Structures are given as C-alpha cells and as structure tokens.
Amino acid sequence: MDLPTLWFWIIAGLFIGYFVLDGFDFGVGMSLPFLGRDEADRRVLINTIGPVWDLNETWLIVAGACLFAAFPEWYATLFSGFYLALLLILLALIARGVSFEYRHQRPESQWKSWFDGMIIVGSAVPALLWGVAFANIVQGVPLDEGHNYTGTLIDLLNPYALLGGLTTLLLFFTHGVVFVSLKTTDEMRVRARNLAVRSGLITIVVAALFLIWTAVIAEFAFMYLVLATLAALALIGSWFLNRAGSEGWSFALGAATIAFAVLALFTALFPDVMPASNDPANSLTIANASSSTYTLTVMSWTALVFLPLILAYQGWTYWIFRKRVTRAHIEVAQH
C-alpha cells in the first residue's frame, strides 16, 4: 500500500472516531426536548457528556488538518464547494459549545431555555449536514477541469443527500439516547431505553434505504456490500440488546454500526476522493489530490508517535468519568 492510499484510510479512521464520539454528543443534545422534563433532567443529560464533549470534537480538528496536509486538492475543492454547508456546521458547533458553558451562568429559566434551544439546534444541524456532505461526496458533484465545484447549495440538497443526512441524524440520535441510558439511573435510564427502542426502529428503516441506494451508486461493489451488511447487522443487534437492557453492548454495537457505515462509504468512494458527476475526467483521485511523498512520510512518522498518546489520553479520560450521573446528585448540587 502506497502512502497516499494509506492516508486515505487513516483519514477514514479519523472520521470514524469523530462520528462515533461526537455522534453520541449530538444525540444527547437532540434528546433534550424528549428526555428533559425539568431542569434537573436537563442537567443530568448535559452532565453525561460534560467532561468529554470538547475532547470528542478534537477528532474533527485532527481529521481536517490531516485532510489539508495529505490531500490539499481534496481539501480545497471540498471546503470551497461546500463552503456554506460547512460554515453552518461550524456556526452550529460554536453555538452548541457556548451554550454548554453559559446556560448555568444565570438562574432565570428563560436564560436556560435559550441556551437549551441552541444546544438542540447546534446538535441537529451538524448531525444532518455531515450526512448530506458525505452522501454528496460519494454520489459525486459537478466539477470543472480545475476541480472546482460548479454547483450551488441547492444542488447539494438532492434526494440522495437528504436521505444520507436523515440517516446520520437518526443514527446519532439513537446512539446518543443509548449513551444516556448507559450513563444514567432509575427513571431517566428507563425512559432513554424506551426512546431508543422507538427511534431505533425508524433508524433501521431509513438506514437500510440509504445503504441500498448507495449500493446502486457503488455498482454493488463486493467490499461495500460486506461492510454495509456488517453495519446493518450491528444496528439491528444494537436495537435488540438495548431492548433487553444491555446498554453497554448496545452502545458498542451502535459505535460499530457507525464505523462500518463510514468504512462502507469510503470503500464506495475509493479510489476517488471527489468524483465528478458531470465528467469522470474531472474527478479528484487519491493519486492526483495527494501531497508529495516527503510530506506524507513526515506525517506518517508524526502520527505513529502522537496518535497512540492521544488515544491513551482519551481512553483515560473516559475511564475517569465512567460513573453514571444520578438525579440525586444534581438535586443536591442545586441547593
């Protein structure tokens, strides 16, 4: 395997990490209107991700930096062509992060309500638009001879892309609600489990439609079919385990679902990185979009040293904050 191909799969791995980790963050944020019946409930939900949400978002920064360094042509085409969509994601993430830090600064219910609304929107918008963006990348977009995107934002909101966005929205929502059941106790745990059962059924149906449509686009490539099947089986298994009350295994299979699904999309994309829907000759590929061998070599050695340290630190953080969040602790802290 040459270095450009290696870095294509490393970037795929970084996006898997981001979607698995920030995915359940988004799901918890979107669950506020469904599970947050009062202020104590909402604080319980926010506290389940309070120690880790900002750490999870660093995966996006690392993925973006590696994409810029390893595939500058891909980065330039993606961020210029999808500029408005990515700007909306960025603004949503900023609003969400600000809300986590500011909602508890004043006691007024209206103050908290405004920031809760920003958390909900700031979670739902990225969950939707990431699916829209990746679906468009896999399907292909119109590019000119200089690899510049020639369409508009409306062109990105096509039926296949919107189905992809709905898939990620529902998948992250269910993943997050299962995380809530894993991290809480008593009534909140039961309500989260029941909500995940209901949302999981809808997610299975929508995800199946998206995977089948993507199989048609990928011309039923063998490896795509294998990974898509694994994603489907993991999602169904996660639903059954959640219904049986095994939140830990359900969450693990939910993470596996996202991992297999992202791998399937990258497999459907390979060896292109940005297919041109108007003329295949204008497509960006791993070969014509990558950096020099020297750059990729330096990046490889850097990743070999620092990536294990990052993984170890994140694993340690999750271990430290592994205990369940209880409503009793929240109510005591309010007095």
From TrEMBL:
Topology versus the membrane: Multi-pass membrane protein
Top-level taxon in the UniProt lineage: Bacteria
Protein family: Belongs to the cytochrome ubiquinol oxidase subunit 2 family.
Phylogenetic classification of the source organism: Bacteria, Bacillati, Actinomycetota, Actinomycetes, Micrococcales
Signal peptide limits: none
Record keyword Electron transport present: yes
Protein location: Cell membrane
Alphabetically ordered keywords of this record: Cell membrane, Electron transport, Heme, Iron, Membrane, Metal-binding, Transmembrane, Transmembrane helix, Transport
NCBIfam families named in the record: cydB
Transmembrane segments: 6-32, 77-98, 119-140, 160-183, 195-216, 222-241, 248-270, 298-321
Annotated source species: Orlajensenia leifsoniae
MF (Gene Ontology): electron transfer activity; metal ion binding; oxidoreductase activity, acting on diphenols and related substances as donors, oxygen as acceptor
Cellular compartments per GO CC: cytochrome complex; plasma membrane
Protein name, UniProt field: Cytochrome d ubiquinol oxidase subunit II
Single GO BP term: aerobic electron transport chain
